[in-house]
Amino acid sequence: MTLSKLFSRLTVLAVAMMVSACAPILAGRDAAPLAVAPESAVILPANANLDQIAALAVINNRELRALRAQEGVANAQVFAAGLLPDPTVSFGADFPLNATGAVTGVSGSLGMDLLALMRRPHEQAAAEAARDAIRDDIVWAEWLTAEQARLLAVRIDRLRTLQELTGRLRVLTQDQLQRALSAAGRGDLPGSGLESYRLAAADAIDRNQAVELRLSAAEFALNRLLDQPPGRVIRFAVDQGDGAEPADPALLFTHARETRIDLQALRAGLNRQDDIIAASLLARYPIPVIDIHAARDTGNLTSVGPGLSFTLPLWNRGQGETAIARATRVQLDAEYQARVTGLEADIYAAADALRIARSQRDQTRSMIAPLTGQAEASAVAAARGDISNSAALATRVTLLDRQISEVELALAAEEYRIALEVLTGSALEGLQ
Considering only Cβ atoms within 10 Å of each terminal Cβ, which end of the chain, N or C, has fewer? Predict the structure, then answer.
């Protein structure tokens, strides 16, 4: 085995192991954020599949690396919230100036803030909920990135096919136009009849150029997502099948509402806010700071005893902090309800759009087989001289136009299917 072949097999094996590690994320299921070293960057093998592309997007994407760093801050906040409040220590001295036989008076105390101690469980629970919400946000961002990589890969695959088809259509319509110009020069075709050929040729050029621009944008976007060099051409294999038929939209919505990671993060935010409200309500009560103090006065009399101090909750009573916490909870609840309501409408819309796109694609596909037979028969007839080359060319142009439409509709169906997966938060295959 040559060194290059060995390296290629090792690279494919490494990517396969990463795909396995990313499987829970790529399937849209609950998972911890992927732990990746900030400096890591993996190069795709020569021919990758969609799972490998999605895995590499999750591993290499720089925005995700920055997002994962937030978990370290959240863990530090949980650690800080769980620390016990430090005791307070005070010390004082009185120096007699004109008394005979007096000694220096000293005093000291050791105290503990009970309010800080009572707030600790609520603040710790709030910090843990905030950390869990950040973890959910990271997993959700990883899922969206993986699906975006799949979408771009499918789009690039279909656009490469469209670029080839529209390029052939461009050549055929130019050939048609040249034949029409020659016929007009011979007087076989009136000048007014050239306009339709010119329009067809111009339309084919526009379609080919539009596909070229879309393809270039998609390739640059995928390279950026995978942290690859901008000019690199990525080759991959895309399954041309439709996949399983999506489940009923009502079932998809119910599943998404219960399991989507971002909705879980919002619910964790609501729980966190409840703990913040509970902590703020403690300011209503005169919870004391207790201490033990010892002293010796200037007359050499020593004493020891407890001390107690507290803030009288007459005017403030923590009302401002409580009002802010409650208003924030109302805001979070409104955001959660709005997202759930919008989610239901989006799932039904995407499912219906997918159904329509597949139906239109199937209708267009059903036209291609007869047109293919006609184009082949026309080519044979033109070769025998039974029909003109222009007539045979027109049939080929019609066939190419239908093939282009079929690929466009297939791309639209794929995009709607991935959109439905994004909205559901899970792979559709597991929801039948």
Answer: N
CA distance 47 to 58: 18
Those residues whose C-beta lies under 8 Å from the C-beta of residue 145, and which sit 6 or more positions away, are 57, 58, 61, 63, 64, 225
Burial class (CB in 10 A: 0-12, 13-18, 19+), 251: middle
Task: Determine which helix (DSSP H) or strand (DSSP E) holds 313, and give its type and residue range.
Answer: none
Domains and CATH numbers, the chain: 3-431 (1.20.1600.10)
Cβ 261 vs Cβ 136: under 8 Å: yes
E strands present in 242-332: 289-296, 302-309
CA distance 171 to 54: 36
Give this prediction's pTM: 0.71
- Taking residue 233's Cβ as centre, other Cβ atoms within 10 Å add up to 9
Residues 167 and 129: beta-carbon distance below 8 Å: no
CB neighbours (10 Å) of residue 200? 20
* CA 302 vs CA 93, 96, 294, 296, 344: distances in Å: 13, 16, 8, 4, 75
If pLDDT is split at 50, 70 and 90, which confidence band does 208 have? very high
Residue 210 pairs in a beta bridge with: none
Count CB atoms within 10 A of the CB of residue 219.
21
Dist CA 373 CA 366 (whole Å) = 12
Q: Which two tokens stand for residue 297?
A: 């006065």
Q: How far is residue 50's CA from residue 30's CA, in Å, rounded to a whole number? A: 21
Read off the pLDDT of residues 324-381 as tens digits, 9 standing for 90 and up: 888 888 888 888 888 888 999 999 999 999 999 999 999 999 998 888 888 888 888 8
